[in-house]
Amino acid sequence: MSTTDGVDPEAEADEYEVAVVGGGPAGLSAALYTTRLSHDTVVIDRGGGRAAMMLDTHNVIGVPEEISGNEFLQTATEQVQNYGGDVVRDLVTEIERTDDGRFYLSGNSTEIVADRVVLGMGFSDERPEPPLPRTGKGLHYCLHCDAYMFIDESVYVMGTGEATAHVAMIMLNFTDEVDILTRGDEIEWSEETQRLVEGHPVDVIHEDIESLTRGDDGWLESFTFEDGTTREYRGGFAMYGSDYNTGLATDLGCELNDDGTVIVDDHGATTADGVYAVGDITQGHNQVPVAMGKGAKAGLAIHKELRTFPKSLDELEAEGPVGETEVPGVSPDIRNAAEAFGDD
């Protein structure tokens, strides 16, 4: 690893076995598992993210609907900390592989060296141009999360691509009032998809939106279009694609899928040794429970790589039997946290 003016930045860095970049459901789940499985773990989280935007939590067994995304994440963060993990609020700007095969992570105020890295930065939804209703109160991005609330309601789907057309037709499972809003842009879906749209009771509105009205509760009530017509909507979905946060992954040599997600195996391991990716940055359903499962699987896989015992036969032959003073293989910080946790 390079140095500046002869000073090795690793010398000042905090050392961990596992560094998790991203404090969403996937990253926090990975950290929870690695921490509870006795590995010194740090989560570096810049804040925000899709989960933090949730006004209510849907589709997570055991979590009431009225729990907001921020409340959900705060509880998860406190769990990781109570088990002995560290959580740092910072933006990781660079990750480099060190000469001994570890990883040096630097941020605005953070320097960390870790044996394994878990990337869980997710993606950002591409937002259409205003005027728009409030996110979560008429503007939505996840059909699987929010379609239920639009049963028998008037719904729009905004966009021009294949996903727009198919989400509009899927919404007919929930309501008989579905419009596609192209906002004045040219349709980009295929001729075959156009035939499908024509075969379903979906209206395509080409005029752009001029203004909107909201109710006293902040929810969308209607759009007025540039031709002067007004249509009432309870809400709808914007389908303009996703911007995956893969800069750190590609810097580390992780290969990407054609859709921009990071290639991983069934346990979250990327094509770069020692680097894992979890959650929405990988392929699959963008759902909180799915992200949590990916994080858990990565945490378990990392434990199997890093755990001290059992020693291999080669290690025993080279080092001799494991002495009683060498066990348990738990760091002092995790041990102290476990003792304090048991006293609560």
TrEMBL record:
A Pfam family of this chain: Pyr_redox_2
Lineage of producing organism: Archaea, Methanobacteriati, Methanobacteriota, Stenosarchaea group, Halobacteria
SUPFAM superfamilies: FAD/NAD(P)-binding domain
GO molecular function list: oxidoreductase activity
InterPro entries for this protein: FAD/NAD-bd_sf (IPR036188), FAD/NAD-binding_dom (IPR023753), Ferredoxin-NADP_redctase_2 (IPR050097)
Domain FAD/NAD(P)-binding: 16-295
Keywords assigned by UniProt, alphabetized: Flavoprotein, Oxidoreductase
Gene3D superfamilies xref list: FAD/NAD(P)-binding domain
Region listing for Disordered, in residue ranges: 319-344
PANTHER family: THIOREDOXIN REDUCTASE 1-RELATED-RELATED (PTHR48105)
Source organism, top-level taxon: Archaea
Name by which UniProt lists this protein: Thioredoxin-disulfide reductase
